[in-house]
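Cross-check.
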Amino acid sequence: MEGSEKADDIISEEILVLESTPLERAQAIRFLEAAEMALEQIRYTIDKLEKRPKPRRGLGEARKVEMEARERRSMACWHALGIGVTPPQVEAALKRGARSVVRW
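Predicted model, tokenized:
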């Protein structure tokens, strides 16, 4: 029942907007745009929180994370070979927390 009540509220608000003055309509439109921007920010925050790694992982997810780490190391090694850095140097840089290897 709550969904239909909300729909009725929205419809009645739209009717009020249509019957209002141009200034009131402009204010209502600005309010709705601000509400949409706030909603988008909330969605973005929720997405970021959902993508954050969980403190405890199941065995399957731990394997997935390990495979992703291996893939990153492998890609970094291939990239490093192209710029003249050896794989052991890449491995050491990744262990220190580097996200990519660049030769200066």
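The two ends are 65 Å apart (CA to CA). Helices lie at 2-18, 22-51, 59-83, 87-95. Passed to J.P. for a second look.
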